[in-house]
Amino acid sequence: MPITHEIPVNLTGRSYKVTVGVDLLEQVGAAAAALTGSAGRGVIITDSTVRAIHADAVADSLTRAGCRCDVIEFPTGEEHKNLTTYGGVMDKLLSLDPPIDRKSVIVALGGGVVGDLAGFVAATALRGLPFINVPTTLLADVDAAVGGKTGLNAPAGKNLIGAFHQPGAVIIDAAVLKTLPAGEFGNGLAECVKHGVIRDDSLLDFIEGNIAKIMAADADTLAELIGRNVAIKAAVVSADERESSERAHLNFGHTIGHAVETAAGYGVVSHGQAVAVGMVAAFGIAEARSLIDSAAGRVRKILVALSLPVGFDDLPDLPAEARDPGRLREIMAHDKKTLGGVVRFILPVAPGSVAIFDDVTDEQIKAAIAAL
Ligand code: NAD
Ligand code: GLY
User: What's the predicted TM-score (pTM) here?
Assistant: First the structure.
């Protein structure tokens, strides 16, 4: 069970460690016991898909560490990240016998949907329980599991209900990605490219040099990829937990990407595909503003090698509405990150570096979309 990276997230009074490696599920019990004291209690919250594949290993680990273990499952899928599922999970948690107490640890085992929902349960049950994130998708490994954003979707929009609640530990096992469907993999890869663009050009070198191993889900290569990405996310969160400044850099590619995802409708385009074309469009705006010259070509090549789209031609099922610059601009006006009608853009300014711009014109936005 090799640990390859131990990465601190430094937050006054709430610092924690992200442990990355291969075959680490068996370490979850020790982490829970460390948070709760021996003879503690862990409640695994997971979705029905991940429960069937990985929950037994985590439950065994908790039991071996001397913790009582319960499992609460909810149906797989983004459409279940809502108040109804939250209410059902919370009812089950509060009905456990013997009852949970403030030393009980929630173990969020799954992708970003589980992490967000179980994290919000942990944030709100008994006014706050400790929790451990055990992500099982590449997207959750490199993004969702680190940083303490938890929450639910509302009828009015995605992630509109939520709280910041940092985990007490994050344990990332790259080996579990072997069972992840290929379509899910691209969602995490798009976020890896994003991290390279915003903070670390050498991460793009690593990706370029390891495309075949990454696409084959080689566990050691993925552990290195995840470790590098978590180091970036942890540094950003440590500097700006509540997104008052540089945490917004993590939204690179998401402004236009979210609009495409929303306009396309549920399930037509994946989050990773939307972010990939969103990043290409952001590079287009940066070029039009003469912020950068040559970086866009390299990033496009990397996205293509990772089987991610770089334009609308790569997304043949995308409806006309989701390609329409005027419609996408309208959707951006309703994004929760839009303040006072100003659409905020994160744009590349140098290799591994971005800045925030509040003065991107409608013409620049529409031209970049039209060029996709
Ligand atoms: P997901 O949680 O829906 O998982 C994707 C699919 O893969 C599901 O069907 C799941 O059951 C399955 N799965 C998970 N792990 C598996 C494994 N090892 N083997 C086989 N199948 C597996 O989706 P996701 O992409 O991980 O997360 C998306 C969610 O994350 C969104 O709701 C998004 O809002 C949220 N998110 C949160 C943050 C944050 O900072 N909190 C950041 C990014 C995204
Ligand atoms: N995924 C963006 C953030 O964590 O802030």
Answer: 0.97
In the chain, what are the domain boundaries? 5-180, 252-370
Atom 2 of ligand 2, nearest CA residue: 250
Are the C-beta atoms of 79 and 47 separated by less than 8 Å? no
Name the nearest CA neighbour of 284 among 271, 273, 299, 269.
Answer: 299
Q: Which one of the ligands is nearest to 119 CA? A: 1
- CATH topology for 252-370 is Dehydroquinate synthase-like, alpha domain (1.20.1090)
Cβ–Cβ < 8 Å for 130, 36:
yes
158 lines ligand 2 (CB under 6 A): no
Q: Is 136 in the pocket of ligand 1 (CB under 6 A)?
A: yes
The model's pLDDT over 16-67, given as tens digits with 9 standing for 90+, comes to 999 999 999 999 999 999 998 766 899 999 999 999 999 999 999 999 999 9
The CA–CA distances, whole Å, from 160 to 127, 182, 307 equal 20, 29, 31
Tell me the per-residue pLDDT of 117-148, one tens digit each, with 9 for 90 and over: 999 999 999 999 999 999 999 999 999 999 99
Q: Which CATH number fits domain 5-180: 1.10.287.1080, 3.40.50.1970, 3.40.50.10320, 3.30.428.10?
A: 3.40.50.1970
